[in-house]
Amino acid sequence: MVSNHKRHDFSDKTKRLLRENVASLCSKPDCRILTVASKSDGFSSSNVGVAAHICAAAPGGPRYKLEQTEAERKHYDNGIWLCNTCSKLIDVDEASYSEALLNNWKNQALVYVRENIGKKLLPAEEVESKALMSTLDYVSGRGSLYSSSTPSKMVGFIDEHLNNLDSRFSVQTNVINGSTFRNITALTNDAGFSISMNQTDGEAFKANLELMRETGKPVKLSDDSFKFTGSKLFETIGNGEGVNKELIIEPKSTKIMVDLYAISPSSQIYLGSFKGKQICLNGGLKFEAYAFSQLIKITYFYNLTDANNPKATCKFIINTSLWNGKSFRRLPFFSKLLMAKDILRNGGELSLGLELEEGQVIGPMLIDESHYSELKFFERFGNLIHIIECYMKIADKYNLSPPVYGDFNLSDEDFNSLSYISSLLEGEEIVLGENIEPFEFNTSLTEYEKFMESRKAGRPNHLRISNVDFLPENFGLELKSLKFERTYFDMDIVATEGDGSVKLNFTPSSNSKSVSTLSFSGD
Predict the structure, then answer these.
(1) Residue 522 in contact with residue 503, Cβ under 8 Å?
(2) Which of 46, 434, 471, 497 lies at a 20 to 30 A Cα distance from 57?
């Protein structure tokens, strides 16, 4: 669970900097209202603005990031100046206002102020007039909606106009990397429109719609294969020429909360709650969510075809590209996943708990042990977490530069060596008596004779084996100076002579002892 702490609020200096850098204007592109003015007495001011946190100042707040430090939460980079209305809007509708979007607003506002310093700002009436003219040009097909000269605040004005075209639908427009995306949602049960296309495309479209109702997979259509009728809204935004368009139809969904666990027959660890969606399909219910940003994609299908014997299947896709190029000390969400490592490596799995809008709760469930491939998938993920932890421990132990995540190569033998070496970082390992593993190796007759002479001379009966450069240098971590040593004391030896060589078999007795140590040149 997220640990509680006091709010990490901005200092007065940071608040002042956030306000002054945008000339006291709200940073929301379609707002830009002036938030500060002097009162009539001339000695005080009125303020309808606030220094808002992009990522929340305390657990439970919108866009809260566990991995942020207190200094990062209180830093200028985590703040944005907004009017009181827009500040409340981004908090009550967190899903619509991401961290990336708010940072984009902030940058736009800074650019806007810099580009307009020394210029006369247009009155609201003139801005509305220009926006209306551009909208009418676009709707009538005489102009492009998003030319480089179009102010970003027109987006909301245009959405208002489009929403008035057909009250059965709601339209929200977003411009991302130069492309326009419109999310259109049906508001009434009779909301509908018609699509005309040739017979071949129509048959394929019908089949894809049926597949969507069964699996939830969206249906995509390119703009040259269909035409809208039956709704002024769709006819307006979909039948214009000269602009490449794509229609994506998704099944209706409702918002849910998804709880993620690491679970085994004997253990259960809660990893966090994440927003998701519930989709009603022909054969049952489908649930989708992303955990830890987009690190883990979760798809859960509850098959209700047989009401007496419902079946659940769950699919996890883990995408570690989020970590590429990042220091091990700053891997997003790694500390949370580390909690699940031992469970995943020992036959456990990731599992879901669902909190539905109706108040129904579905607890985490174990998959059947016969699903060997799925259990191996979770074991491999647990091993990846273990590998990262081992390399990080080595770097911290010997004050090496932090490893950086990227492609790596580790054989099964190297993995076992890494795990063992990691266990030696806390101190030497001592094994006594017959708990020592017997071993054998070949040596030359000359070396064997020297060894026997030393024993006859009364020298200590021990054998020291050392090894260097035995771990691959993954993640940019150089380990050539890492040295492993094991010394055996009072082992029984059986020698078998061959052609110029001797095979030595070392077996422990009750008096035997082995001591294993790890060192780093420069210690």
Answers:
(1) no
(2) 46
